[in-house]
Amino acid sequence: MDVDKLNFKNDGLIPAIIQDCENLQVLMVGYMNKEALRLTLETGTVHFYSRSRKKLWKKGETSGHVQKVKEILVDCDEDTLLIKVQQKTASCHEGYRSCFFRKLDDRGNLKIVEKKVFEPEDIYKK
What we know:
Layout: E1 14-20, E2 26-32, H1 34-43, E3 47-50, E4 55-58, E5 67-74, E6 81-87, E7 102-104, E8 110-112, H2 120-124
Parallel strand pairs: 1-6
Antiparallel strand pairs: 1-2, 3-4, 5-6, 7-8
């Protein structure tokens, strides 16, 4: 399988940029090990490897905000994935559609540039 040719770094992980398949907005960046990529390919929904929790997780398993895979692209060095998805509701656990909801202004100050699409406490208190 060509998956075995991918350049998983020394930690066994490969970065995965998640992009909305319709409007091309970058939604988030996560990391996959070979098992997460295998599950993603098998199920058609995005799975990651959590570096902090040291375990596999399915995007949306708690929130229901799943990412359905439409296309997986590989960069020229075969060490980064670009996964185009159909996103249900939001990708960010803070309630925003994209994890990139803040912008640095010319003075280096962070400004929120996106409205929340859900309140996290509604989901994570269940």
